[in-house]
Amino acid sequence: MARLELRNVTRRFGDFVAVDDVSLSIESGEFFTLLGPSGCGKTTILRMIAGFDLPDAGQILLDGQDLADTPAEKRPVHTVFQNYALFPHLTVAENIAFPLRMARRPESEQRSMLNEMLEQVHLVDKAAAYPHELSGGQKQRVALARGLVNRPRLLLLDEPLGALDAKLREEMQVDLINLQRDVGITFVFVTHAQVEALALSHRIAVMNAGRVEQLDEPSKLYSAPQNRFVADFIGQINQLEAQVVEAAHGHLRLAVAGLGEIVAPPLAEAKAGDKGVYAIRPEQVRIGIHDEVSELKNHFSGEVKSLLYQGDVTVYRVGLANGAMLEALLPNSASGRAQLFEAGDAVKLGWRHDAGMFLHD
Length: 361
What we know:
Blueprint lengths: L3 E10 L2 E11 L4 E5 L6 H9 L6 E6 L2 E2 L10 E4 L11 H11 L4 H14 L15 H13 L5 E5 L7 H18 L2 E6 L2 H7 L2 E6 L2 E6 L1 H6 L4 H6 L4 E10 L4 E5 L3 E5 L10 E6 L5 E3 L2 H4 L3 E12 L3 E8 L4 E7 L14 E6 L5 E4 L1
Parallel strand pairs: 3-8, 3-9, 6-7, 7-8
Antiparallel strand pairs: 1-2, 1-4, 4-5, 9-10, 11-12, 11-14, 12-13, 14-20, 15-19, 16-17, 16-19, 17-18
């Protein structure tokens, strides 16, 4: 049985449908993420699970039990917010122990659970400190510890790392992964940050306009998106209008706008005449000036129009002779060199016959 199940859940605000007939199940011990742009319905789903809001239709079940008649304060669920919501007049230890006091746990049990939690979030030395004396990352760990201390069946996290700077976010991502693994509690995480979702999650539901576009493991979402929205939303990708010329068992032959005919991986439901896009990740596109690019099944000549140096990699925008524009990514592994090519350089682009994918309109 799934730990949490949503069955045909809908939530409307007047004429606006925030959540549109969503069904999904989340397993016990899973790190599950709701990912999507602002206004896609992910936070509304989180609020309904917590009991802060109620669905207009459908069911939300926790361990098989419908939560419809269970008020928020009675649900074995805790929520961690982006703004931490710590009590400024309480110490770290008092903030973390607050849910234990509210549950009237025995004093000895409170001490034991508090000490264990302080160790798990590496805040033993800050137990007597007040929130204003803590860094952003430390405050976030206090909020997490308070949410986990009495072992809820679900921990809901609403953009919990959104207020942190980039480096601290990366550190907290590692902390979150380790913490979730150690406590074994089901996490339901809401974010609009694709990289964060890919790094943290066992599975991700990509949402758009109140619906789930695709629910899958991070690697499958990235490598095999099921539609144009998911392909575009998860990472960087080149998309070119295309039509299927031939759908063979081992490959597709596509007529691609600006490129002519190329060979692409097979797609079971594709047939000759189908229209859509050919999508390929920048890291799958090889860029060079030598013959090894020409040996690839799909290869074209072009000119570097612009480049974006990002430290570990450089992204090149290349205009091809027939007018198409493609991005290619290269690691900056050559010592002392910021980039391998400059704007205006003549280059060749190529990719393998099994790279990229055809996506229907």
